[in-house]
From TrEMBL:
InterPro entries xrefs: Lipoprotein_NlpA
Record carries keyword Lipoprotein: yes
Highest taxon of the lineage: Bacteria
Pfam annotation, one family: Lipoprotein_9
Membrane-topology descriptor: Lipid-anchor
Compartments where located: Membrane
UniProt name for this protein: MetQ/NlpA family ABC transporter substrate-binding protein
Amino acid sequence: MKKRQSVLSSILITTALVLAACSSTGDASETESSKNDSSESQTIVIGAQASDVQIWEYIARSDAAKEAGVTLEVEEVNGGPQLNTATVEGEVDVNAFQSWAYLNSFNEESGSDLTAFATTYLEPMGIYTDKFDAIKDVSEGSVVAIADNPSNASRGLLLLEAAGLITLPDDFDALGTTSDIIENPKNLIFVEIDDTTGPRVLQDVDLVLIGNTVALEGELNVLEDSIFHEEINDETKNNVNILVTQKANAANEDVLKLGELYHDEEVQEYIEEQFDGTKVPVKKDISYLED
């Protein structure tokens, strides 16, 4: 009887040890799993519109994003003010659509403090026409279609000045208008349009100022189809596109990785191929735009 009890006790002890070991292993697995979950980066929601949606969907699937440990969710939001408002309200974490000038204009008008943390590209604005072969051919009294929003209107006027068609004051800024023109030797006549309609009004006016996003949608290549377009220099740096977030997120490590992801070699090759070189990469520190 005692011998049986001894054997039974031995079995019970062995069973208890096995159960304890299993429990310990399970706890360890759960702990390790918990560690893995906590180490995974949070999903960053990036808001974009038009061709930028395509670009960021590609980046979200890229090997570069996986290697950086960044998980991206791309939200399409149509309209610049709507995209910025969605960012202010935290509906998206980052937005990718606007120029430095546009951001400054939005912040000034809305009282917001959205912050740019990376540069991406310059999409050259171009002067398009069905009437003339070159800038020198532009005739007296030509009608020019210009954007009805402040940032693109001022940008268009600076482009006309660069082309030698008008003269603007030295202090002309991102909120400047046609009333600021100090010399207009060809007596150009300006009409305001919704700048998303640019390609559709080409036959109705003599010149149209069209941003590249809209030009691409109208199957126009700014490098080939415009008679004059922006180049990357200090005069156009306000038109460089940027990544924007809330001020509180501007130091977030995962958010900051997005600038590097945009300029990844694989990503740049894709953008070059898809957009025929019309999204000219600009990889500069934000301080370049602030100077």
